């Protein structure tokens, strides 16, 4: 059987461990008797549409291994969502032209829910346009909002970063609260799901520990209840530390920090909820405050990555290749949690039809009755995901990252393609 080449691409916001999935794909493909070369798309699916491919076979074994401790997206990512075949047939015909020209029979797309949708559409190409292609989605998202899989690779590391950061910041605040800052607000990612905000709750080990308040997207924001909770914490502990999800919203569904614009996927752009809450506290309660928005820091902090998360990210990359070798199509490797008190996990299989465009939000029993904290059930779910410190090489006091050649594949099609 003649070997077919593979196309791999990264999509959406990157994580501290997405490149570990890339390493898993490339290393497993190099061992495969069915897969030829792995071509990476420069800047995601856009690389396929514009025939801008990277030949990963030009990278050394050591460089590919170094991807496991390199944050960001090694081949470039994008926020670009394919429309339906009916509304934009030219995009799909272009994909087939590029795949055929480069003998590509396997499509590995590493991303979140929107990427699963793209992967599902590509998987249908062989049936609708007569070109054989196996499409496997590789899960990735810091938001932890993919269904079926127990957790999403990338989340465990951002959860660890969040819990550590808010604990350390709280120690700073408590040392100054008698004469200075009384309130600290830390904003974390999570447009619709409060998983990252919930992870901040892991920093709290006993009564009085920070964070004293967590604001979730799943719980309608009530200003009166919120301010009362702040005042209670300041009175009782001398200070108040708050973790808030960027997607915090009012009862009517409007975001506290709606910037009035949308991104390429049609999601509302959010303008920063931490300063909104901080100013609310200052104007209503008069407390001195500080706020922080870790933004890209929380998802690129490879030096503080979870060893569990890294292992899972690498495993789903290798599993994607195994699925392709088994002839599977339109599926996603899913992390399955084992039963029993001791945490264990394995790789299962999820059909993309059940994954695409489905968001997994925080279950209500993971949030305390007052809506401002996490329950023991949430803690039991979250703690295993942040375990272990992923190995990180340093040189001259700085982390060592992979430096790829990113050698382009020679183009075979005439003309250019406009997006």
From TrEMBL:
Keywords linked to the UniProt accession: Cytoplasm, Glycolysis, Kinase, Magnesium, Metal-binding, Transferase
Catalytic activity: beta-D-fructose 6-phosphate + diphosphate = beta-D-fructose 1,6-bisphosphate + phosphate + H(+)
Record-annotated site: Important for catalytic activity and substrate specificity: 114
Domain Phosphofructokinase: 9-322
Annotated diphosphate binding sites: 13
Cofactor(s), names only, from the UniProt record: Mg(2+)
Superkingdom, taxonomy of origin: Bacteria
InterPro entries with a match to the protein in the record: ATP_PFK, PFKA, Phosphofructokinase_dom, PKF_sf, PPi-PFK
Active site: 143 (proton acceptor)
Similarity comment text for this entry: Belongs to the phosphofructokinase type A (PFKA) family. PPi-dependent PFK group II subfamily. Clade 'B2' sub-subfamily.
Protein name: Pyrophosphate--fructose 6-phosphate 1-phosphotransferase
Organism: Alcanivorax quisquiliarum
């Amino acid at each position: 059987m003649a070997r077919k080449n593979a196309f791999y691409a990264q999509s959406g916001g990157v994580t501290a461990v997405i490149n570990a999935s890339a390493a898993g794909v490339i290393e497993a493909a190099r061992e495969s008797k069915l897969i030829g070369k792995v071509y990476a798309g420069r800047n995601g699916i856009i690389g396929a549409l514009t025939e801008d491919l990277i030949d990963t076979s030009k990278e050394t074994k050591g460089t590919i291994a170094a991807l496991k401790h390199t944050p960001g997206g090694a081949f470039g990512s994008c926020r670009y969502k394919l429309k339906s075949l009916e509304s934009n047939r030219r995009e799909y015909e272009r994909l087939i032209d590029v795949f055929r020209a480069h003998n590509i029979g396997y499509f590995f797309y590493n991303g979140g829910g929107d990427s699963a949708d793209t992967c599902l559409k590509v998987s249908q190409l062989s049936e609708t346009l007569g070109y054989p292609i196996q499409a496997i989605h590789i899960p990735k998202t810091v938001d932890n909002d993919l269904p079926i899989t127990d957790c999403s690779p990338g989340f465990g590391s951002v959860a660890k970063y969040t819990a550590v950061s808010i604990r350390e910041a709280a120690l700073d605040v408590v040392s100054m609260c008698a004469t200075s800052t009384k309130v600290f607000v830390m904003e974390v990612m999570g447009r619709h799901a409060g998983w990252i905000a919930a992870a901040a709750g892991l920093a709290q080990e006993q009564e009085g520990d920070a964070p004293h308040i967590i604001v979730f997207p799943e719980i309608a924001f009530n200003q009166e209840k919120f301010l009362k909770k702040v005042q209670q914490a300041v009175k009782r502990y001398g200070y108040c530390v708050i973790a808030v999800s960027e997607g915090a919203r009012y009862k009517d569904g409007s975001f506290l920090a709606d910037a009035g614009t949308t991104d390429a996927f049609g999601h509302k752009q959010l303008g920063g909820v931490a300063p909104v809450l901080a100013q609310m506290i200052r104007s209503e309660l008069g407390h001195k405050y500080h706020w922080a928005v870790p933004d890209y820091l929380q998802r690129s902090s490879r030096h503080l990555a979870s060893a569990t998360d890294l292992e899972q990210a690498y495993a789903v990359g290798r599993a994607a290749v195994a699925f392709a070798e088994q002839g599977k199509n339109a599926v996603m490797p899913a992390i399955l949690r084992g039963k029993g008190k001791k945490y264990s996990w394995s790789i299962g299989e999820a059909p993309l039809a059940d994954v695409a465009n489905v968001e997994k939000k925080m279950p209500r029993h993971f949030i305390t009755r007052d809506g401002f904290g996490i329950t023991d059930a949430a803690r039991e779910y979250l703690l295993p995901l942040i375990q272990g410190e992923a190995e990180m090489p340093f040189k001259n006091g700085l982390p060592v990252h992979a430096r790829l050649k990113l050698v382009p594949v020679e183009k075979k099609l005439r003309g250019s393609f406009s997006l």
